[in-house]
Design a protein that fits this description.
This protein has 237 residues and is an alpha+beta fold. The chain is built from 5 helices and 13 strands. The chain is 16% helix and 41% strand.
Length: 237
């Protein structure tokens, strides 16, 4: 699979929706986890990322303008021991609670499906970063309707047990803008990731469509120690 430029992928797509990027820095020392949200409606755009424990949650920027919180207010990132969970919905909690009970990643997500937002049926995308004893692996998942048919949920899981240095995988909800919005297709894209947290985060933020971008989370995790650094960008200030 050809390794793509994240800058070019994002700059060329006005509306990939929500996106997860997981990978390994070129020096092989850190795991990378990033998540962004975009919005077309005023309700979707009325959000910011705020810190919550070791993770983050979404919050209404202007609570008086919040319409329907059901699919837009959630914790995109939670940490459980050696696992960092990143998703585009409240399945973050499903995975967290399932892992606590000893379920596998796949078992946790088996109880969920795409979002009930007809006619888009937005896919639920999820990522799991595991860093322990100087080793790093990750998994990604997408739950989507069968080409727009909500009677069937298609479940795809991708696991990476020895990620390459300088490479990540990029999974997003929509192929591009449209009505209805076309769901992501295929395997998560192989993309380049950088060594410098601030430069990488700034590149992602600047590459997202200016009108539609809402918030961005980026974390670098030291594979030897589990220590991490985080950057958060919000369009609403």
């Amino acid at each position: 699979m050809k390794r793509l430029s994240l800058r070019e992928e994002l700059s060329a797509n006005a509306y990939p929706g929500r996106g997860i990027i997981i990978g390994r820095t070129p020096d092989a020392k850190r795991a990378v986890a990033a998540y962004f949200i975009m919005g077309r409606s005023s309700n979707s755009r009325n959000r910011v990322f705020v810190k919550q424990g070791e993770g983050i949650r979404t919050q209404a920027f202007d609570p008086s303008k919040l319409e329907d919180p059901s699919l837009i207010i959630y914790a995109p990132v939670r940490v459980l021991g050696h696992d960092t969970i990143v998703t585009n919905g409240d399945q973050t909690d499903t995975v967290y609670e399932g892992l606590e009970k000893g379920l596998t990643w796949e078992q946790c997500l088996r109880s969920r499906e795409f979002e009930p937002d007809a006619p888009n049926f937005t896919p639920r995308i999820s990522g799991l970063v595991h860093v322990e004893d100087g080793k790093f692996s990750y998994a990604m998942s997408i739950l989507k309707s069968d080409q727009g048919d909500p009677s069937c949920c298609c479940r795809f899981t991708f696991t990476y047990d020895h990620p390459k240095a300088g490479e990540g995988r990029f999974l997003h909800t929509y192929m591009h803008d449209g009505s209805p919005l076309p769901s992501f297709e295929g395997e998560p894209k192989a993309v380049e990731v950088g060594d410098d947290l601030d430069a990488f985060a700034q590149m992602l933020w600047e590459s997202l469509n200016e009108e539609n971008k809402v918030s961005l989370f980026v974390r670098f995790i030291e594979i030897e120690t589990g220590a991490y650094e985080t950057r958060i960008f919000n369009k609403n200030q």
